[in-house]
Amino acid sequence: MPPYPRRSRLLSRAVAACALAALPFAMASNAPASKQPTADAAGVKVAARIVRLARKELAHGVHEIPDGSNRAPAIYRYDLATTPHYYGAPWCAYFASYIAQRAGVPIGPGGRGLGYVPTIRAWAKASGKWTQRPRPGELITFPEHVGIVEAVYPSSHTLTSIEGNYSNGVHRVWHRWRDSMGYVRLVGGDPANPAPEKTPAKSLPHTTLKARISAYPRTTIAPGQTVDFTSLDSSGNVVKSNWDLDGNGHFDSTGSSVSHRYDKPGRYTVKLKVTDSAKHTSTTSLTITVNNNRAPVAVIHIPSDVTVNQDVTATADGLPKAETSLRSRAEF
Predict the structure, then answer these.
(1) What are 280-304's pLDDT values in tens digits?
(2) So what's the architecture of 40-184 in CATH?
(3) Strands 139-142 and 182-184
């Protein structure tokens, strides 16, 4: 018989108790991970939904009726995603607002949508959504145009986007990354490119090639101001836009959206030549007027030593010929 049978039995029971106590911890460590989706995973799904919704509108063959009017029943649907909205105005931002709203990530303060591209950029920067890296489901912005990033190709730094108000309809467009001013990231995660579409988009009705210029903020400016131009309101299957921005007779800029700063007063004839896939061309022009005057810079002169109830004369000087005076009584 062992000399210490009782002590041996007690030791065995203690070991067994410790093993039982550790069992819940072992089971917890081997349990499968929670199925609750992470924020990034949820963002990837929303990005896919954005692209899917944009492709759906592309498949509908949405286009302006009549051509060049910024109007159509489908376009009116896009307008309603933004408050306030103006039916008949350029609608690329309304299209982006509509897609974002339908995907559950509305843009703008209070999710009311945004109808002006510079305002979209300002909102994105203020809310931390501005980025220089394109991803599927983001907004791609140009000086006066915006679209939905569909697929991104890092090896060539190119992408495809789906854009409203491009040649007066919803179109798929190829871009280089550097063509844009930047991107608006609506969701988190790192979404992959969507699968290629099995069926082509509905063919848009044939329209005659016609060049049209849109200029922002206006065609009459002061020296030193920059004007943004776009050819996106042109009709037809436009594949190339060439610009003469300084009126020297040479088409020395290309792209659907371009900008130019005018420093000297005068009248400048801006010309646009658009080319379609059949090599047909159409040309139009627009006059930019740079006024000779500059905005006055006010400088107010007020006496620094006054007494209570004393009449005071303040003089404002400016450039050019901006001078006035104000009489008041010191009552402090």
Answers:
(1) 999 999 999 999 876 566 666 666 6
(2) Alpha-Beta Complex (3.90)
(3) antiparallel
